[in-house]
Each structure stands twice: as structure tokens, then as C-alpha cells.
Amino acid sequence: MRKPATRKRARVGDVLELRTPAGLAYLHFSHKDRTLGSLIRVLPGLHANRPTNVEDLARPKERFTVFFPVAAAVDRGIVTIVGHVQVPAAAQRLPVMRMAGTLEPGSGRVLDWWVRDENGTRRVGDLTPELRKLSLAELWNDTLLIERIASGWSPEDET
């Protein structure tokens, strides 16, 4: 693992530290998508202190992935670059993600779902138990990201 030299410009592979009310969370900047921007892997666990081996943080499967404005968050000091680790082989391809389709007027309930992968987007209608596990192809701000991490949210909570 290479330590960042007080870099202020994030690169794919950077491990980012994010303060939440429940502890320090770690994010791994894994992809740059031409449509939605920077994709992060939200790494498992919350920490009272920064772990000494940041590389170990990026090895396990992520809790979920989400698009997040990494460059702006680094510029504003919302996240701190704490290391640089190669994206694990299992996470190098853009993940299959799901997107809400039509919303019911008034209630906002999702009436159908779409799946997005490297080949495009396709309608799937209702979610199967397997599709419920897919991360959401959404762009989140820091407030929502912090709230969801601290609460223990998972993609299966979003129906």
C-alpha cells in the first residue's frame, strides 16, 4: 500500500475516511463512470480509530456500492484520503446495480425496477430476493451517505 503524499485529488484505488456519528467509515474509490461519476465501495465496519493497515480494509466484500462526488468531498474535507490500494479483482468490473423505475403518484412507491450493468439498462419489473441485494445506481450526497452508513442500512432495506 502506498501512503498518499497529502494529495488533494482523488484517484481510483484511494481509500477514503468518512466521519459518521457511529464511528469512522471507510470507502474505496473503485470506478469512474461517464454517466454517474465516482463509484465507491462502502467497506464493512465502523472504527473508533483509523486502522494501522488501511490495505486490509479494502480486501473484504463491500457492504454496498454507490455513486458519490468524491472529488468535491475531498476538496471540502468531508472525506480524507488515507491510502491507495488496488481495487480487488472481484470489484474491478462495474457492478450490476438496480434503479427505481416508475413511481406511484402520491405515495412515491416504486412500481417497477431496472437493472444497470456494463451493457446498459433493462427493465426487470418486481424485485426478486436476489435483485433486492443489488446496490442502488444512485448518486448520494454526504448527508445521505453518512446517515445510511451510521444506521446500518443495506440495499435490501430499499424496496
Question: Can you walk through the features of this model?
Answer:
This protein has a five-stranded antiparallel beta sheet. Strands 6-7-8 form a three-stranded antiparallel beta sheet, with no helix packed on it. The longest helix has 10 residues. Helix content is 15%, strand content 31%. The protein has two domains: 114 residues, no CATH class; 39 residues, no CATH class. By secondary structure, it is of the alpha+beta class. The chain contains four helices and eight strands; from the N terminus they run βββαβαββββαα. The termini are far apart.
Contiguous runs where pLDDT drops below 50 for at least 5 residues: 1-5
Approximate shape: globular
Separate helix tally: 4
What class, by secondary structure content? alpha+beta
Please report the total strand number as a whole number.
8
Give the tally of structural domains: 2
Compute the separation of the termini in Å. Answer: 38 Å
The averaged pLDDT comes out at: 92
Sketch the topology as an H/E string, one letter per element: EEEHEHEEEEHH
How much helical structure, as a percent, in the residues? 10-25%
Defining key terms:
159 residues, alpha+beta, 5-stranded antiparallel β-sheet, 4 helices, 8 strands, disordered N terminus
Task: Summarize, please.
This protein is an alpha+beta fold and 159 residues long. The protein contains four helices and eight strands, in the order βββαβαββββαα.
Describe the secondary-structure layout.
Layout: E1 14-20, E2 23-33, E3 37-42, H1 54-57, E4 64-67, H2 70-75, E5 79-84, E6 97-100, E7 113-117, E8 120-125, H3 129-132, H4 142-151
Antiparallel strand pairs: 1-2, 1-5, 2-3, 3-4, 6-7, 7-8
